[in-house]
Amino acid sequence: MKAKAVKIADGVYWVGVIHWNSRTFHGYGIPGTTYNAYLVFGEEKTVLIDNAYVGLQNQLDARIEDAFAQEGKEIKIDVFVQNHSEMDHSTYLRDTIDKYNPDAEIYASANCIKFLEAQYHNFSDLELTPVATGDEIDIGGRTLKFVSAPMLHWPDSMFTFLAEEGILFSNDAFGQHVCHSKRFDKDYSLDYLLREAQKYYANLVTLGSPMLRMKLQELTDNGLLEQIKMIAPCHGQIWTNPGPIVEKYSEWASGVCKDKITVIYDTMHHSTEKLAFQIAEGIMSEGVEVAMYFMQEDGPDDVITDILDSKAIALGAPTMMNKPFPRIGNMMYWLDCVNFKGTGSEKNALIFSSKGWGGGAVAKLQRDLEEAGFTVTDTLDVLFVPDEDILAEAFEKGAELARSIKE
Ligand code: FEO
Q: How far is the CA of 2 from the centre of ligand 1 (A)?
């Protein structure tokens, strides 16, 4: 096949793969994605940074060939740098090495080397050199500096910094699962990209928030952060203006939240729904933003995205067989996995439910939410269908929750 490489700086090319028809990733819905790989030409050596899924490798090969053609050079990759071993960036790695240069230098973190062998069982005959923060290689007039980035988002994650150009190849960090024909942030609206980056962060990076805070501090202390002119992640658009995404990562990792409450509910015969809508009215009456989710239609991934920068949630479920309605259970499972505790944000929660007789949903949700790091500040457990008095109470509980986050 034919495919063009995209020049992102002098002698630096995007040679990645566009996965137009991918619709889920790590369990969340996406509109397609990209697996970004980069080719860096030095005066002495040419380096391939990261790789692609097998099945789409023809794109990678075609773009590598095109990049060499654009540079007017014979195809030869001297160095492979693998920032992370997860399969979306590594399934074709061994084949790429065999195809382009089995004698090439190969650099990765010690964990990445271990993980590659554990996933593919065919790397042990190659000489892979472990690198970490402080290590660098000279490729002829250009320097690649390695920065360990464990838990951003795997224990093996690493960044590679092209010092002379100020380009940070950040692998999964700073990525977005979007799928477009153009490669840069400036080609699309910043608000849209930051929202996609928030979804990516909330669902994939939240757990690593304490590590991210330390990493940003380290990059600030050693002066590297101010040298970054471009961030080239492994998914989505390339940040030619890194300021906004670095600022957002700093906020998300530190639990900075808006005056916003995410309302999440499911319903059987519209009773819990009536409570949800009244609670939302109460929240709005205090001038606080509401993000509303109906779990019969909406995905947990979008809910998680809004909870990330919400100061509180209101969670509602009908009682069924003494427990919360099952789709809310799925939601709770995600909340427990993502674990917002690491961001340091303190999120209040209001639980509401409609029950036929004995109840049980509220008690179960309270236990689960507290385990997931939320502070349950109030509950509303309603027998069958809420009347006007109950609806007024729901309104007031929403307003009270809103006041609690403004204080
Ligand atoms: Fe995009 Fe962790 O791989």
A: 26
**What is the edge-to-edge ordering of all strands in the sheet holding 143-148?**
136-138, 143-148, 158-162, 167-171, 230-233
Q: What is the pLDDT of residue 310?
A: 98
Number of structural domains in the chain: 2
Give the other-Cβ count within 10 Å of 208's Cβ: 23
Count of positions (residues) in the chain: 407
What are the pLDDT digits (tens) for 172-209? 999 999 999 999 999 999 999 999 999 999 999 999 99
* pLDDT on residue 54: 81
Confidence of residue 241 (pLDDT cuts 50, 70, 90): very high
- Within this chain, do residues 36 and 93 fall inside the same structural domain, yes or no? yes
Residue 386 counted as domain residue: yes
Average pLDDT, rounded, for the chain: 96
Give me the catalytic one of 50, 172, 273, 368. 172
The closest of 370, 36, 356, 43 to 180, measured between CA atoms, is: 36
Residue 188 Cα, ligand 1 centroid: separation in angstroms? 23
Atom of ligand 1 nearest to the CA of 87: 3
Same domain, 125 and 271: no
Residues 154 and 64 in one domain: yes
CA of 142 to the centre of ligand 1 (A): 27
- Looking at the structure, tell me whether residues 224 and 153 fall in a common domain: yes
